[in-house]
Amino acid sequence: TAKEIVNEWTEAELVKILFAYGEEKFSRRIAKKLIEVRSKKTIETTSELAELIKEAIPAAARRTGGHPAKRSFQAIRIAVNDELGAFEDALQQAIRCLAPGGRIAVITFHSLEDRICKQTFAEHVGKCTCPPDFPMCVCGNHGVLKLVNRKPITPSEEELTDNPRSRSAKLRIAEKIV
Q1: CB–CB of 92/120 below 8 Å?
Q2: CB 3.0 to 4.6 Å from 155: which of 39, 55, 90, 166, for a disulfide?
Q3: What's the rounded Cα separation, in Å, for the pair 86 and 97?
Q4: Domain 2-81 belongs to what architecture?
Q5: Tens digit of each residue's pLDDT (9 = 90 or more) over 18-61
């Protein structure tokens, strides 16, 4: 549970998840603050946790980028639910289930998900080394997917106006070729 993570994990483990899952620049300061406070008493509520995180972040950094605890709460949520592991497993299973010619379209909403999607697609795309003028591949380095779009599709200005929450969305599409 989140309560166990906040109150029982080591400082190093806290730093690791805050930095890796929340991309939190102040992960060391936050972890140090949590360890310091929980040595005196258990951290019980989310509002108490949010206040501690806010105190750990320098004042100048708190003035920009939304609520100062947003990234830390995201990191804890991802750790509790093993969201990235589940996402990666689902992607692998979806690729296996696709019929030849079938397409998979994945919308991601933060950079961690997008990186996993990009890397998973890349693992399944062939790295053909045949000269471009060969009529067919003879090197044997063909994968099971081809990318439909090399770069992710992002929301248009019109979409952003109609739906501001779409600002972080990225769409990646791949097609099964084998």
Answers
A1: yes
A2: 166
A3: 16
A4: Orthogonal Bundle (1.10)
A5: 999 999 999 999 999 999 999 999 999 999 999 999 999 998 88
